[in-house]
Amino acid sequence: MIILALNCGSSSVKYKLFSWEERKTVTNGVIERIGIEGGPRDHRDALQEIIRSLPGKIDAVGHRVVHGGEKFKSSVLINDEVLEAIRSVQDLAPLHNPPNIAGIEAAKEVLPNIPHIAVFDTAFHQTMPEQAFIYPVPYEWYGMYGVRRYGFHGTSHLYVSRRAAVLLGKKPSEVNLITMHIGNGVSITAVKNGISVDTSMGLTPLEGPVMGTRSGDIDPAIILFMIEKEGFYVEEVDSILNKKSGLLGITGKYMDRRDIDKAATAGDKRAKLAQVIEAYRLRKYIGSYLAALGHVDAIVFTAGAGEKNFALRQRVLSELDMLGIRLDKNRNENSKGQSEELISADDSVIKIFVVPTDEEIVFIEDVVAILEGRYETHTHFKYSFENPDYKGKTQ
């Protein structure tokens, strides 16, 4: 069975072609500049370009969908009803769901005679209890408009939490974890007995720690204050908080942590400040989730910076010895995100892992299981990467 995994953004399509029988990637890539001069006209043209470049027959397509609202607690076969339900919650993820929908529609047009499956970022977090997902705003907003915490990066948190359970020699239902997805977008999840019980992103992917260009947690009155001062329109505020804040907002120049690190080393005070603020806020999330979970077996770093930036991990975990969290300096510096690594000291009460994420394998396994009629929600489904002898993509 040959599965095509698609991740459609507003101006790009990332793809992976995977052979299930051989358990290997056939090819992968990205088409960029969709709708921009020099690039494909729209997602349909981009999908046609991708299909022309792929060898052989495709049996099914798995689509990443960022927001599934409360309706979708697991991956599903896409039909007209499902597509309409995804469309109905697109105002909850206006930057993400519209291109996801455009990608689904384009792919179904280009590949009309094969199954298409939706895999939701929000599904993993649908196990959160009410005290974690209800906001302290008028309760009617929840019933009327779906205002609640949803959480994102679910396939990443699912994958690394299951791999961490393997590394601990336990079943997923036996582990409590803090999983830290640190890329341009950042989300932290409290995993109790193998399921998500709290997560840092909220109604949208804007809430949480400091991110590349997103503000993360702020006093909401700042928005009202700045509207009074500058007369901002809604679209301007949205753009500022999502695209001009975070690390970019603090430094005024950089969103990439590699650039920030170079600038800080060269003496740039605002770059140094960005480093300190980011680590401080991530450390606070660790503290709050330790309190929420009571007992924690391991902290897991993943995604671009989480996997590759050892100095960031060092800053985040400094001064946490009193909580039983001790980093091994040499192990940490030698871990470059090329494989799963234990980076905690031998006497650390809470273990610390670096686990390279593999969201696409979650897509692919969900697709195959749905087509074979053996799929269940993630709380009951066992993935191949839960086996001790499984070899990850970078191992």
From TrEMBL:
Binding-site residues, substrate: 64
Broad enzyme group: transferase
Pfam families: Acetate_kinase
Active site: 121
Co-factor remark: Mg(2+). Can also accept Mn(2+).
Enzymatic reactions: acetate + ATP = acetyl phosphate + ADP
Binding site for Mg(2+): 7, 359
Location (main, coarse): cytoplasm
Cofactor(s) needed for function: Mg(2+); Mn(2+)
Residues annotated as binding ATP: 14, 181-185, 256-258
Pathway per the UniProt entry: Metabolic intermediate biosynthesis; acetyl-CoA biosynthesis; acetyl-CoA from acetate: step 1/2
Entry EC no(s): 2.7.2.1
GO cellular component terms, semicolon-separated: cytoplasm
Site (Transition state stabilizer): 153, 214
CDD domains attached to this UniProt entry: ASKHA_NBD_AcK_PK
Key words of the record: ATP-binding, Cytoplasm, Kinase, Magnesium, Metal-binding, Nucleotide-binding, Transferase
PROSITE patterns: ACETATE_KINASE_1 (PS01075), ACETATE_KINASE_2 (PS01076)
Protein localization: Cytoplasm
Gene Ontology biological process terms, A to Z: acetate metabolic process; acetyl-CoA biosynthetic process
GO molecular function (one): acetate kinase activity
Cited InterPro entries: Ac/propionate_kinase, Aliphatic_acid_kin_short-chain, Aliphatic_acid_kinase_CS, ATPase_NBD
HAMAP family xref list: Acetate_kinase
Function text: Catalyzes the formation of acetyl phosphate from acetate and ATP. Can also catalyze the reverse reaction.
Assembly behavior: Homodimer.
Family (UniProt): Belongs to the acetokinase family.
Protein name: Acetate kinase
Gene: ackA
